[in-house]
Amino acid sequence: METIVEINRLTKSYGSFTAVDHVSFAIEPNKIYGLLGRNGAGKTTIMHMITAQLFPTGGELRVFGEAPYENDRVLRQICFIKESQKYPDTFRVNDVLYTAEALYPNWDREFAKRLVADFNLPLKRRMKKLSRGMLSSVGIIIGLASRAPLTIFDEPYLGLDAVARNIFYERLMEDYTEHPRTVILSTHLIDEVSKLLEHVIVINKGRILLDEEADSLRGRAYTVSGPAAKIDSYAAGKTVIHQESLAGSRAVTIFERLGVSDQKRAEALGLQFTSVTIQQLIVFLTNGASAKKEGTA
Ligand SMILES: Nc1ncnc2c1ncn2[C@@H]1O[C@H](COP(=O)(O)OP(=O)(O)OP(=O)(O)O)[C@@H](O)[C@H]1O
């Protein structure tokens, strides 16, 4: 099957400020992607270019093999759910769902109905009378029931409580298993979604920082802790992305896969290992301080 999105040196500048800077990546079919990064990293700008809401300043972009701009063949295959989606004031929840049904060729009305019940949505209530969380659940229902070949959720759950977020994750997984499609999830709740993600793309200051399968990312770094002097000796020459010290003991996170010889060495020194979650890894890599080799200037 063809690549869903191909981006090559994509750039978007606003005057002298470059929000997206020569970014290249590919989105393959039937996978769930996480597009992650700190506030202002450039994620929404990238999603707006993929969905033809913004023109790039440079680079190449193909979606379903074609340029997306004013291209109905491409755009009808995309459902983009944004954090602050606006709806006409007079619309009730029902009206929004009818409109979505007309827009998305793969819309599943029965599935939408079940989701409305799951999220306790009042179908007759006007959109402007919905609570913040209810508004988010309307977006989530559209994103799921559209079954669009490319579904993009940009921070879809403002105001949504933990129970409702969990319903979203569960329904997404169940439905995705039955109806595989390509999903891009952009969120700051990385721990919550990390089980769902098959591939992770991290953007930092407009550039690609990581583009990796989620499983591979899980072993990309490890934390080792023990007496400070032993840790310093162990970490010398390694790429340390985070460290914490307390009363003579130290924990450092090393951006490397743990090899057998290092593991033996650390065990001989009596040091302890803990794994690093995808969220921790991204926080450590994007917290402003760049990774540095221990024992180097
Ligand atoms: N129209 C614009 N004019 C100037 N700068 C802009 C414009 N739109 C976005 N930016 C800047 O581009 C950068 C990237 O913004 P973007 O919304 O893509 O970030 P993001 O990764 O989605 O952030 P968040 O996680 O906070 O939503 C930010 O510094 C933002 O201020």
Automatic annotation (TrEMBL):
Keywords of the record: ATP-binding, Nucleotide-binding, Transport
Ranges where the ABC transporter domain occurs: 5-230
Instruction: Identify one Pfam family in the record.
Output: ABC_tran
Query: Which branch of life, at top level?
Result: Bacteria
Checking CDD domains in the record gives: ABC_DR_subfamily_A (cd03230)
Q: Kindly give the SUPFAM superfamilies that the UniProt entry links to this protein.
A: P-loop containing nucleoside triphosphate hydrolases
The protein, known as: ABC transporter ATP-binding protein
Record flagged with keyword Transport: yes
Q: Which organism is the protein's source?
A: Paenibacillus lycopersici
GO MF annotations, alphabetized: ATP binding; ATP hydrolysis activity
**Is Disulfide bond included in the keywords of this UniProt record?**
no
The record's InterPro entries line, in alphabetical order, gives: AAA+_ATPase, ABC_transporter-like_ATP-bd, ABC_Transporter_VariousFunc, P-loop_NTPase
